[in-house]
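Recap from last week: sequence in, structure out.
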Amino acid sequence: MQPCSLGQTYLMKAGLLFSPDRGAFTITPAGRELLATNPPRITSTLLEQYPSFISFITAKVGHNIKQGAAPVLSSPTDAEHQTLEERVEAAHEELMSELRSNLLEHVLNQSPAFFEQLIVDLLVAMGYGGNHEDAAQRLGGTGDGGVDGVINEDQLGLDRLYVQAKRYVANNSVGRPDVQSFVGSLVGRGAQKGVFFTTSSFSTHAIEFVRNLTQRIVLIDGTTLADLMIEHGVGVRVSRTITVKKIDIDFFDPE
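Predicted structure tokens:
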């Protein structure tokens, strides 16, 4: 069997690999059954026989559409009809999708205190909270009424941002009651702005609830959290930079 080029994430999402520890992988019974059939190559099309992989791909394509990106290619046949630049873009999106998934897995494996510090690091990286020391003093400082912390929007503290953070597994979404409690806390403090972070997702009722409020409430789900971490360099580093160059037409046509 040829080595799989799809990466460990696809195999894990299909239930063929299990990661008992960081950097360690164990083949599952389902993986052994697949190996017993001696497939010439493991492709995403082959993995579509596994419901867990279908769920993963469906969620990923939905994220791409939400972000205005093209869906990730699902089979080598599709790739044959793409230009080289389109294949590079598709490969980049596949790497980004895998990075998002791995980021959330690492966050969920950490302690609640680590998650709290992660939110501090992210907010500071985004330009809120002044410095790490000031932000850390405010996050987790109230500890009551549905508010985890208060962050300055600017270094002078002229406006404040109220924060709530829930570290939930993917299938445990944040419902309207949690969001409503958070909003109630803001109303009690006369606050107008709040951000609710979670590693999972928000229910439809929770999302609908915040749309017509006088307060400005931003809901950051797990996918958006991972995107913000990547964008602002929190918990990630540059592995490789690839520069793609093309012909400079003006150089060859001075006129």
